[in-house]
Design brief:
five-stranded antiparallel sheet; mitochondrion; 12% strand; 5 strands; 7 helices; 245 residues; single chain; 44% helix; Alpha-Beta Plaits; alpha+beta
Length: 245
Amino acid sequence: PLSAGWLPALQFVRRGSKAVTRHWKAMHFQRQKLMAVTEYLAPRPAVPPRCLAPRKETLEEDNGYVRLLRRQVEEVFRDNRMIAVCQYNSMPGEDVVLMRHYLRKHNIEVKFVLNEIVRPVLLQSKYKNLLPLFVARNILLVSREAKAKEMLRVLKGVPQINLLGACIDDTILSRQGVENFAKLPVLEAAQGQTVGALALLPSQTSSLLQCGSAHLTALLDQHIRRLQAGETGSPAEPAPAQSSG
């Protein structure tokens, strides 16, 4: 006989998912009517919106400090021949002071400006084509003289400052245009070369025009000497050689 506490060595235990007791059930018809009746409806305005008078837009007036900064930007673009736009990246303060010192030796000033100040000024001026350059933190390198070569020499040792473009003598140039402008000779030398080239062609034309008359005069002089020598019976003196110019 088996003892009362004996259990079989193998037992089957059912392990499955729980039974789903909650199913979707449609709302009762009477409750649907109650929900439709009690739904909130916003009240209609007494006057239609199209009949209302339009609101007057109030223009925000700039304060005095903003007007002062914009006036300074206008003076910078009016009083300087060279305005270079550069992208400014973070750099130590000592390097900024050193860069400004080297640029000031060539009469080039560094201007830190804000895009909110510069963009409205350029939009109403003849320099509006410079607007695409003012998209990040920028600085201006300005000078009363067109010293592009000196500026590029200083910026070559400052990799944190990237030249984007410039306006030299009311002409907008790209970075490559500024580099090409820096390779040009000084104005006095260029004027001397131009004057020499213009004077060369008239001098050559004048010498060509005088060559025929000078040759004819030499032939006539030689003919006269021969006639005089024939009358006196002495040999004629040889005429000096004439160059053809």
